[in-house]
Amino acid sequence: MASLKKSHGIFFTPHPIVKYMVELTIEKVKLWNINSLSVLEPACGGAQFLKSISEDSFLKNLQVTFTGVEINKELFIDFFIEKNFEIIYTDFLLWETHKRFDIIIGNPPYGIPSMSAHYPIKIHNDIKSLYKKIFSTWYGKYNVYGAFIEKSINLLKENGILTFIVPASFLFLDEFARLRKFLSSEGRTVIIYMGEEVFKPAASVATVILLFQKGKSLAGHITLSEFTGFTKMPKTHLNSTTWTGEIVTFTSNFTKFLSAECPILLHDMFDIKISPRTTEIKNNPIIQQCQNAPTHYHIPLLNGKNLKVNQIIYSPLTGYWIHKNDLGRFRGYFPGPHIVVALGFRGDRQLASAFDKKNYPWMGDVYHLLKKPDRLFNATSLTEQELVDWLNSSVVRSFIIDTFKEVTYHLSITQLERIPVPPSKESLKKLLKISA
Asked: H or E segment at 120?
C-alpha cells in the first residue's frame, strides 16, 4: 500500500483537516437558497471527504447526491453506501461527464507525472501527452494537482464551491503561471496557508486550503490568509479584487518596512539567467568529461558545489571541461565578471551568492545576475561585493522567510527578482545593523 500511495502521489488527509475543510465549505453553502446539492470528491481513495460532509447536520433536509472518482480500486475502503452515493473507478483527469456539481472537495494527488525514476507519479508518456492536450494550464514540469484544479473548476456549476488541500507551490512558481491566470479569470480565490506540518511524518510539504467560488462576476477577487488554529480567524496577508494571476506572496511588518526602505528590486537592476542544465552539457560536443584537464588550455565548468556563501571554489568538481577558445560558442557563458547565486538554499533559507571575478563557465542550478544597461544599477551606488554581502545577509534571509514561507526548497528567478535592494551605501549599513 505504501508503494501504491507513492506511485500515485497520494497523501491521506488528517481527520481534523477534513472536518475543517467541510466546515469552510458548508458555511458558503448556507448562504444559498437550495433544496438539493451535488457533491464530488475526485481521487477519493477512502472517500474521507464524502463521508465527512454527508454527516453534516445542515444537509439533513436537502436532497444530496455524492459522487467519488478513484483510479485505484484497491485504495477504496468499503463502507455503507446509500443509494445517493456513487463511486466511479476511472482516471479523473480523463473522465468525461455532462454532470456539473455544487461542491467539489478533496485532496488531489501531488507530484510531477513521469516514468522517470526521479519522479513519484508513474504515468506513461502517451497518457501524459493526453493531459497536455486537455489542460490549458499545463506548462513545463507541471504538478498533477494543477490539472485536478482546472478540471474540477470546469465541472463546477455557476457559483459552485471547490475546496482542495494542495501544495502551496502554485502561489509563485513559474510552472503555475497559467493556473494562477485561470483562477483569477474564473472566480473568487481564497487561500489559507496551512504550513508544512499537515502531512508529517508521511511528507513534508507546505500546503494551502484552496477555497474557490466559480463566477465571472467574482473574477479577480483573491484573499490570502494564514491558519492560526481551528477556532481562530486566519491571519490575512492579502485581500484584492484586481488579481490577474500574479504571484501571491506573504507579508509581515518586516517585509513592509524593508519594501519602504528599498524601493528598488533586484529585477530593476539585473537580467537573471540560469546556467545550462546537465543534460545539455552532456550532449554538447565542445564539452569534454574527464577527471583531469585534457590540455592546459581547458578550464573546468563550475556548478552549485563550487558556490558557497561569498566564496567560489575554482576547482574541477564537476568533471566537465571546455577549451578556452570555445567559450564564445558555449550557450550560457556570460562574459565579464558578475554575481552568481545558487538556486538552492544553504541551510534555513540562506542564499549563497558570490562575485565571479574570474568569469568561469557554469552549469546546473546557478543564477547569473547580468547588469541591465540603464541607470538603476548606478542609482544604488553599491558595488557588486556590497550587493553580494546584502544577498547573503540575515536581513534578506528574513525577507525570504516572511515572503515565501517554507513553500519551496529553492528560489525561482521570479522569486529572486523580488528581493529588495538598498538604494545607497548608507541605507545598506543601516539595514545590515538589523542583523548585527
From this structure: none
Nearest to 96 by CA among 104, 88, 85: 88
Ordered domains of the chain (ranges, CATH): 2-247 (3.40.50.150), 256-435 (3.90.220.10)
Does the active-site annotation cover 110?
A: yes
pLDDT digits (tens, 9 = 90+) for 156-183: 999 999 999 999 999 999 999 999 999 9
Point out the catalytic residue in the list 170, 199, 250, 334: 199
Q: Which of 20, 49, 108, 377 is catalytic?
A: 108
Distances (CA, A) of 384 to 334, 355, 356, 370: 16, 7, 10, 11
Contacts 24+ apart (CB under 8 A), 199-202: 199/11, 199/14, 202/11, 202/12
What is this structure's pTM? 0.90
The one catalytic residue among 110, 148, 164, 320: 110
Average pLDDT over residues 210-233: 93
DSSP for 79-97, written as a single string? ----TTEEEEES-GGG---
**108: annotated active-site residue:** yes
Mean pLDDT throughout 139-151? 94
Q: Is the pLDDT of residue 3 over 50?
A: no
Which residue in this structure is represented by grid cell 552549469? 363
Could you report the per-residue pLDDT of 275-290, keeping only the tens digit for each? 999 999 999 999 999 9
Q: Give the pLDDT of residue 123.
A: 78
| Strand partners of residue 274 | 367
For residue 265, the model assigns a pLDDT of 94
Residue 45 is predicted with a pLDDT of 87
- Grid coordinates in use for 296? 592546459
Within 10 A of 145 (CB to CB), how many other CB atoms are there?
24
Q: CB-side exposure of 364: number of CA atoms within 13 Å?
A: 15
CA torsion angle 179 181 186 191 (round to 10): 70
Select which of 20, 92, 107, 330 is catalytic. Answer: 107
Q: Is 142 a catalytic residue?
A: no
Share of the chain above pLDDT 90, in %: 76
**Is residue 76 flagged as an active site residue?**
no
Helix (H, G, I), strand (E, B) or coil at 175: helix
Is cis: bond before 201, omega within 30 of 0? yes
- 40 by DSSP, 3-state: which? strand
CA dist., res. 12 & res. 185, Å (int): 30
